[in-house]
Write a structure and sequence with these properties.
With about 450 residues, this protein is an alpha/beta fold. The chain has a six-stranded parallel beta sheet with strand order 7-6-5-8-9-10, covered by helices on one side. A four-stranded antiparallel beta sheet has the order 2-3-1-4, sandwiched between helices. Helix 2 packs across helix 6 and helix 8 packs parallel to helix 9. The chain is elongated and about 110 Å long. The chain folds into three domains: about 170 residues, Beta Polymerase, domain 2 (2-Layer Sandwich), CATH 3.30.460.30; about 140 residues, Rossmann fold (3-Layer(aba) Sandwich); about 90 residues. The chain contains 17 helices and ten strands. The longest helix is centred in the C-terminal third of the chain and has 54 residues.
Length: about 450
């Protein structure tokens, strides 16, 4: 089995590129099945799509030339991503990265542990990782191979969380957004926040806002029941997305994080809200990818609009305390990769042993069929047994002997060494010599 990870993230591409290759959660099962059916070498596939990254994880059948299959699989994945989203393949090639086998395993473990996140050690990514795996399981595009890898990845991420300080000192995109709001509004208790979405990120934003002393929070979501569920936790108001235009004039702070494929807030809506506010400043953070707030909104006077990319400076300041923990986490990940690759190699050995036993069983059955016919014809059982043993031994040794002779003629002496090690020929030879010597002494 070969493993490949193809991705684009906040380090390799701006939000303008990342949003073009993000996937709608509602269509993900169909996308996964399409990908699996389209790409011949791929046997299993899962896709992780968040605001900061889009990554495709695949297992594929290995060939004799691993380098060639590596290159081929990476190219067809990139081409598929380009065609699916209608994005220039050259742009994606310049913005993407591809990892194979143990490097791919290491990358997945680093991502799940929060070591490759915009916010070092942020915890949400592990939940997103688990969700991506669950979706691919339901879609029937992951089986024993990727399943084993994902479970090992989850175990390592949990080990990192448990045994290092990587998760201490709350640091996340949500935390950074609220920190920036505190710089603009010195007293958040007098401000009103409109939170668009009701997912995990907005949940974190609401918690941080409450901790910062804000009193008024409005939660807007496509489903009112979900908005109400979140609002109840923070004594907030719940409204539908279509009510945003009506509620917007009340909002000093707007933080949005939905999975909508199209912008939710346009320039015209914000302009009308500003007039009703008599141009009192509005602070907006668009955490979503694709963006929830039209880029042109940032051109308006009295609007301070930021995207996830704009939060980097704040995040970098908060991340310093996690550097030592990250070094410890890297060591845990190295151990995790080694464990998984050993397990993977052992599975390959099991497959080889099964194939070998199957072949030997077929040879045995063929020899038994011949021996039974000889017995039915009245041949001497002792002679039939002797012929069976001789024929069976020759058939088992025929191909290995032929291959060893060929290896010897071509100077591949390492194969001869492996044969001696595999069948313990050196010790057998020494035993034979010792036995002969003892016989000579007795004579």
């Amino acid at each position: 089995m070969g493993i490949i990870a193809l991705g684009i993230n906040h380090k390799t591409a701006p939000v303008a590129v990342r949003e073009k290759v993000s996937f709608d959660p509602a269509t993900m099962p169909d996308v996964l099945q399409q990908l699996l059916q389209t790409l011949t070498p791929v046997t299993e596939v899962s896709i992780l799509s968040t605001c900061n990254r889009t990554e495709i994880y695949c297992s594929y059948k290995q060939a004799d030339d691993d380098t060639e299959i590596h290159t081929y699989t990476g190219q067809i994945l990139l081409s598929w991503l380009s065609q699916h989203h209608g994005v220039d393949e050259r742009v994606l090639s310049d913005s993407s990265y591809i990892y194979h086998d143990d490097d791919a395993v290491r990358h997945m473990m680093r991502v799940a542990s929060g070591l490759d996140s915009l916010v070092l050690g942020e915890p949400q990514i592990l939940g997103q990782f688990k969700s991506a795996f669950a979706v691919s399981q339901e879609a029937g595009t992951t089986g024993s191979q990727l399943g084993r890898l994902f479970r090992q990845t989850f175990n390592v991420a949990k080990e990192v969380r448990t045994n290092t300080a990587i998760g201490q000192n709350p640091v996340s995109v949500a935390f950074a957004a609220v920190s920036m709001a505190k710089h603009i509004f010195t007293d958040l208790s007098k401000s009103t926040a409109l939170l668009i979405g009701a997912g995990e990120t907005i949940d974190l934003v609401a918690k941080h806002l409450k901790d910062a002393g804000i009193k008024q929070i409005i939660v807007a979501n496509r489903t009112l029941a979900r908005a109400q569920k979140l609002a109840e936790q923070f004594h907030a108001e719940a409204v539908l997305l279509e009510d945003i235009a009506q509620e917007l004039p009340r909002a000093d702070i707007v933080i949005s994080s939905t999975a909508s494929p199209l912008p939710i807030l346009g320039k015209g809506t914000v302009e009308r809200a500003l007039k009703k506010r008599r141009h009192s400043p509005m602070f907006m953070v668009d955490i979503a990818v694709p963006r929830d707030i039209e880029e042109e909104v940032g051109d308006l006077n009295d609007v301070f609009l930021y995207t996830v990319d704009d939060l980097k400076d704040i995040i970098e300041e908060n991340v310093k305390s996690r550097q030592d923990a990250a070094k410890q986490a890297e060591q845990l990940i190295i151990s995790g990769v080694e464990r998984f690759m050993r397990e993977l190699r052992s599975l390959d050995v099991v497959s080889t042993v099964i194939s070998m036993r199957s072949q030997v069983e077929k040879l045995k059955e063929a020899c038994l069929v011949k021996a039974r016919k000889q017995l039915e014809n009245g041949d001497d059982p002792a002679r039939v047994l002797q012929i069976f043993a001789h024929t069976y031994t020759n058939k088992i040794l025929h191909t290995p002997t032929k291959q060893m002779r060929k290896a010897g003629a071509e100077g591949q002496l390492e194969i001869m060494d492996w044969a001696e090690e595999l069948f313990q020929l050196s010790s057998n030879t020494e035993d034979s010599l010792t036995e002969n010597n003892e016989k000579n002494k007795l004579e």
